[in-house]
Each structure stands twice: as structure tokens, then as C-alpha cells.
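This is your field. Have a critical look at the following sequence-structure pair:

***
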Amino acid sequence: MSEEKSNIPWWANKFPFPPDQKKPALIRQQDEIYSNYGKGNDKITCEIFISTDKILMSAWIVPPGQSFQPPDIHTGEEPYYVLKGVASVNNPETGQIVEAKAGDAVFMPAHCWHAVYNFGDEDMYLCAIIEGKPWTPEAMKWVEEAKLKTVGYKDE
């Protein structure tokens, strides 16, 4: 399956440079790529700093009552560092939930389903770094075909 046919973003695995043209680079705020993740009312903003064939670095802004939807999975390991607010990180396959506050980090192993929720009343910010190509055609297919349950709020 080619990248063009798998809904992989144009910048994925080649920002700020294609794999064969890498060099040290300063990524300024005006250079970042802003993207939305999710469907319907669960669209959240993501800032992409770096997306190469070896690593992705991004920051996520999750408003109160929002989450990463659909749940996600990657072929590489992924730590989250919470900059502001409280992140409720859920593995919808096992039901495990980890609550991380500003200054905490959460480790997601490779091939582990995850979704991040903001049950608080302020925006939650976190930084994520993913090992390897985060969105391979294989991982995109897993997400597209997933039938996982999501966590609901008390008033739903």
C-alpha cells in the first residue's frame, strides 16, 4: 500500500527534510505544521515539530471534555510528557487508565492502543515523541479497522 493511498499526511516521515537530506535544523514556531486529529466533536490540535523516518515530535492541545479519537497505535515506542493539565491515558484494549499531571511522563510501548482524555476544566498540553515512522500503512489500517470502545463522561 503506498503512502498516498493510506491517508498518511504529506509531511509524515519527511519533515523538515526527506530521509536522505537530513541536517541540523532549528524549527521555529512559524515552521511548525499544525494539524487536527480526530473525527466529529473530538478534533484536537496538534503541532508537528519533527516527523522523520526515525522519530516524530509533536505537542497536543486537548480542550476540556475532549480526547484523542479514534484510539491510536504505533509501531514504535512513545513517551508523553504532560506540560499543563491532567492527561487520562487509556488503553481501550485492556481498560487500563493512567492519570498523569503536569510534570509527569507516560510511556506507551510499541503496538499498544491508546487514547488520551482531558476530564479537567482547563486545556491540557502534552509533548509526544514517537520512535520510528508513526503512521505506516500497516498502523493506519489498524486504526481504520479498529472497533474499540471509548471512555464516556459521567453526564453522557
